[in-house]
Design brief:
The chain has helices spanning 3-22, 41-64, 75-81, 89-107, 129-162; strands spanning 69-70, 118-121, 125-128. It is mainly α. Strands 1-2-3 form a 3-stranded mixed beta sheet.
Length: 163
Amino acid sequence: MSEIKDLLERFRRGAELVAVVSTGSAGAEWDFVPGPGKWTLRQIICHLADSEMIGRYRLASVIAEDNPTLMWYDQDAWATNLDHSRRKFSQALETFRRVRGENYELLKDLPEETFLRTGTHSKNGVMSLKDLLLMYAEHAEGHARQIKAARDAYKAARAARSA
C-alpha cells in the first residue's frame, strides 16, 4: 500500500479510535480535570470537533485553490470562549466523527499528486495536503492517548477517595 493510502487509513480510523477510548465514560468523568492546565474529556472532544471543521476548510482550500492561506487559531481561546465545558459531549463526539468521515470521503479518491499541493499556514509556513493529512491523523491519535490518560487519572482519583 502506498504511503498516502496508509495515511488515509490512519486518518479514517482516528474518529473510531477516539470513540473507542471514550466508550463507557459519562457524567463526572467528562468534567474531571486530570491535572493543572489539562483539559477534561468534554473539552478534548469539543476541541476535536472544532478542529475537524477547521481541518475541512484547510483541506478543501489546498485542494481547490492555489497556495491558500491556512489560518492558525488559538485553541485555548476557543475552548474558553466557546464554553467547551458546557457543550454536549455526545453531540461534539458525533460532530467530530461525522466531519472526519466527510473529510475522509473528500480525500480518499484523490490522485496521489494532489497531495503535493500546498497552502501557507500562518504559523507553520508551507504545508502540503500530505502534511495536513499527517497532522490531522496524528491529532486524533494524540488526543485518544490523552483521553485514555485522563480516564486512567479519573479512575485512580476515585480509587484513592474510596480507600
